[in-house]
C-alpha cells in the first residue's frame, strides 16, 4: 500500500522543483525536514498556506528544519504562482520563495506517498492532493504525519509547535501534554522509573495524586 508510516525512511525520490532537480536525501542532508503537499497551484487556501509558510521560514531555519512543498502542477506554474504568493504576503511579486515546490504534474510522488484526496477532483475527474505534512528527523525517518482534506487549511503555528515537541522529545525522556508550548512544563515518560527520573530531572518532579494511587502524572520543567 502506498504511503508512509511513522518510523519509515523517506524514499530517496528524484524530482524537479522550483529550486532545480533534487534527490530528497541530499536535500535533507543532516537536517530535519518538513514536506507539505497542496491540492493545486492558483487555489485560494493553498495560497494562504504557502504565504504563511514563507513568512515562517526563518522560524523553521532556526530549528534546523528544511522546508519543501509539493503541488500537482509543473515548475512553470509553480513559479508563476509564487509571484501571487509573494504578492499575497505584501512582498515583491517575484518567483522566489524560501523553499522549493516539487512539480508532481503526473501525481507519481503523491501516489507513492499516499497523498491523494479521493473527494476533491479536478475538471477531468482526477483526484487532487490532500494537505499532508510529513516531518522527517535527521535520520530521515518519519517522525510526524498530519493529513487534512483539501478543503481545510492547516495551522502553521501548530506545525511549529509540534516540531518543538518532536525535537525536545527526541533528546529527552519527556512527552509534551495537551496544548503544550515551548517553555511549558513537560511530562516524564511512563517507562522511566522513579529513581532514574530523579537523576534525569534534577530541577524536580511534581507527581499529581490520583484516585487510582498510581504515580504516572509526573511533571518536570522543560529540559
Ligand atoms: C484551495 O486551496 O483553496 C482548495 C483546493 C482544492 C479544493 C478546495 C480548496
Short description:
The protein is α+β, with helices and mostly antiparallel strands and 223 residues long. Helix content is 29%, strand content 26%.
Question: What do you see in this structure?
Answer:
The chain is of the alpha+beta class. It has 7 helices and 13 strands. The chain has helices at 24-28, 44-55, 57-62, 75-88, 108-112, 156-171, 194-200; strands at 14-17, 20-23, 32-38, 65-71, 101-103, 116-121, 127-129, 131-136, 142-148, 174-175, 186-188, 206-207, 218-220. It has a 5-stranded mixed beta sheet. It has a 4-stranded antiparallel beta sheet with strand order 10-11-13-12, with helices on one face. Strands 1-2 form a two-stranded antiparallel sheet. The radius of gyration is 20 Å and the shape is elongated. It starts with 13 loop residues before the first strand and ends with a strand. Bound molecules: benzoic acid. Residues 39-40, 43-46, 120, 128, 150-151 line the site of benzoic acid.
| Overall geometry | elongated
What is the residue-mean pLDDT, rounded to a whole number?
A: 96
The end-to-end distance, rounded to whole angstroms, is 39 Å
The percentage of residues in β strands lies in 25-35%
**Rg, nearest Å:** 20 Å
User: Helix- and strand-based class?
Assistant: alpha+beta
- Molecules bound to protein: benzoic acid
Low-pLDDT regions: none
Task: Work out the number of β strands.
Answer: 13
**Helical content, roughly?**
25-40%
Strand order of the largest sheet: 5-4-3-8-9
GO molecular function: 1-acylglycerophosphocholine O-acyltransferase activity; peroxiredoxin activity; phospholipase A2 activity
Keywords: Antioxidant, Multifunctional enzyme, Oxidoreductase, Peroxidase, Redox-active center
Family: Belongs to the peroxiredoxin family. Prx6 subfamily.
Pfam family, one: AhpC-TSA
